[in-house]
Specification:
By secondary structure, the chain is mostly beta strands. It has a 17-stranded antiparallel β-sheet, with no helix packed on it.
């Protein structure tokens, strides 16, 4: 048997199939950090085989028989592609520049992200095929769970979450993002419905009197 080599040094390793086509490579090359689904980054369309300023990042690339890259693993994360999706990944897992972990998924008519989300919620965001956030599900900055529904203009139109002291509430907003109606529970667990004008001033309140439980309208 030949004597094994203890150290192999090379600029690039390639794995080829029986037809001589490269199917995987391990190399120092450009890191495709601009190829991202994340909405917080600049909306610049990535270019096929585009390069960043750093051309010395190690990466592992696996391709299909046609030479189309299907998987890229580099310093910034893991990217998965399909043949029909161009240069944008259909799934990616990486860490954002601020240290936040990020998971992104993209289908034909939607995009989903698990990271710092929309409407002040950290968690899951779902986007439509135009790339507009339409749903946010997760935790508010103070740790309370919430669900936000957004219109095509990206403004929150409805929200469901917890008030302070763990009281549930439903919030309805107009096209300018101003709260117009709230339905929830008081500190005494009594239901209450409040209406607001376009200046966010409360104009009507329907609920139960705390002393005797009788209905009251203000």
């Amino acid at each position: 048997a030949p004597k094994p080599v203890e150290v192999i040094r090379a600029h690039k390793f390639e794995l080829v199939d029986r037809d001589g086509k490269t199917r995987a490579s391990l190399e120092l090359g450009p890191e495709f950090t601009e190829e991202t689904l994340h909405s917080m980054l600049d909306p610049v369309l990535p270019k096929e085989n585009g390069k960043t300023a750093d051309d010395s990042s190690p990466r592992l690339v696996m391709s299909d028989k046609d030479g189309k890259d299907l998987t890229r693993l580099g310093l910034h994360g893991l990217y998965l592609y399909d043949k029909k999706n161009g240069s944008l990944p259909i799934a990616q897992l990486h860490v954002l520049p601020d240290g936040t972990p990020y998971l992104g998924l993209q289908g034909k008519d939607f995009r989903a992200e698990i990271t710092k989300s929309v409407a002040g919620i950290t968690g899951l965001a779902i986007y439509d095929k135009q790339g507009i956030a339409r749903t946010g599900l997760g935790l508010s900055p103070d740790g309370r769970p919430g669900l936000a529904l957004l219109g095509q203009d990206g403004m929150v139109r409805a929200g469901f979450g917890l008030f302070p002291k763990e009281k549930p509430g439903l919030f309805l907003y107009d096209t300018e993002g101003k709260g117009r109606a709230v339905f929830g529970l008081t500190d005494n667990a009594d239901p209450v419905l409040a209406f607001y004008d376009n200046q966010s001033k409360q104009r009507a309140l329907l609920g139960l009197a705390p002393n005797n439980g009788e209905p009251a309208l203000t």
